[in-house]
Amino acid sequence: MSRRDKKRTTLTGTILTWTLTLALMAWGAWQLASFHKTILADAQKLQEQSSETPTPPPETIVDIDPVEPTAMPNDRELALMRSVDTDTSAPAPTTLDTPATEPADRTAQIADFRQRADSLLAEGRIVEGRAALNNALACMTAGDSQSATLRRQLASLNVPVFLGSDILPEDPLSLYAEIRPGDSFLKIGHTYFIPSALIAKLNPNLSPTNLKPGTGVKVVTGPFHLRVSKGLQRIDLYLRDMYVRSYDITMEEGNFLPRGLYRIKKEAKIQVGTRLWIGFESATDNLDSVEVAWFYGSAGPRGRSTAHGDTSRGIKLADADLAQLYNVLVESHSTVRIEP
User: Which percentage of the chain shows pLDDT scores above 90?
Assistant: First the structure.
């Protein structure tokens, strides 16, 4: 082959190579443009579909009105409590005195209240029937022969409700309160004048570290009070003016705690391991000689002597009973009435 023919062949190959290369580049550019067009079309279609889909409405939040404790009327002991630095916004201490009526009148009143209670309870009106029983008990003296029966009846109705998880419809002393944001057992207890330990007992299935706002927590409208009958060796527990239950006590010979009104002393509910003490102090000027007295259990009373406490100013209970009182009494608000 001549040199001219070789050059012609090489030129033809180069032209074919470039032509094929340009054709491939043009085809690639067309494919890329088609791809971009497809992507843009799909994006526009998705945007149109999303704009046509209605936005779901925000979740509806129902605001529940807070449940407030049922107001109770004041009584004459409120003035006494003010003189011993008690928060006067608290419900007034309960008057636990026996009504000043003649024996014949009291007998008639007791019979009337008991008859009314039987009728109401038979109709299933537990809260009203309970109130009638409580009124009958209030007409009796501490050692009245009928009082034991009434106390048993009231305890069977009230212990499961005021010290347990049961609840009665339309009960002004036991109810479900709404949990608010930031609430704790301690904060709720301050609102209703009950210890946080009692709220835990009333709500065994409720975790104090996982309180959900808007849900309910069972409370009772405190405070609780005590009535001590020295001669009968008995303590009666009241929720405001409603009898709850009784406890047997031991008062050592020579116990000279004078009758009158006391209150649970501030910072005097003491727990050391499993040992408990509850201190109470005078709530009136005529009892200022009693600096502090103690409810105690098997651990013994508290006193100046480390070997033995001052039993002349102490009241002994069974350990289980003392623990229950420890969980219901509120410092500075719960009162203790000592009677002969």
Answer: 54
Rounded to whole angstroms, the Cα distance separating 111 from 145 reads 14
Beta strand ranges found along the chain (DSSP E): 174-178, 216-220, 224-229, 234-239, 242-248, 260-272, 275-282, 293-296, 314-316, 335-339
Contact (CB, 8 A) for 167 and 176: yes
Burial of residue 312 (CB within 10 Å: 0-12, 13-18, 19+) is middle
Q: How many helices (H) and strands (E) does the chain have?
A: 8, 10
Whole-angstrom Cα distance, residue 126 to residue 168? 8
What's the CATH number for 174-221?
A: 3.10.350.10
Nearest-angstrom CA–CA distance, 287 and 159 = 32
In the chain, where the domains are located: 174-221, 224-339
- Each residue of 10-35: pLDDT tens digit? 666 667 666 666 665 665 555 545 54
3-state SS class at 233: coil
Q: How far apart are CA 338 and CA 139, in angstroms?
A: 18
CA pair distance 198, 161, nearest whole angstrom? 12
> Which pLDDT score, from 0 to 100, does residue 258 have?
87
CA distance 129 to 154: 10
What's the mean pLDDT in 223-247? 96
Token readout for 162 is 């005021």
Compute φ and ψ for 242, nearest 5 degrees.
-100, 125
Helix axes 103-122, 126-138, angle to 10 degrees: 170
Higher pLDDT, 83 or 127: 127
Per the CB < 8 A criterion, the answer to whether 157 and 126 are in contact is yes
For the segment 83-111, the average pLDDT, to the nearest whole number, is 56
Q: Which CATH number fits domain 224-339: 2.40.440.10, 3.40.50.2300, 3.40.50.300, 3.40.50.720?
A: 2.40.440.10
Is pLDDT above 80 for 277? yes
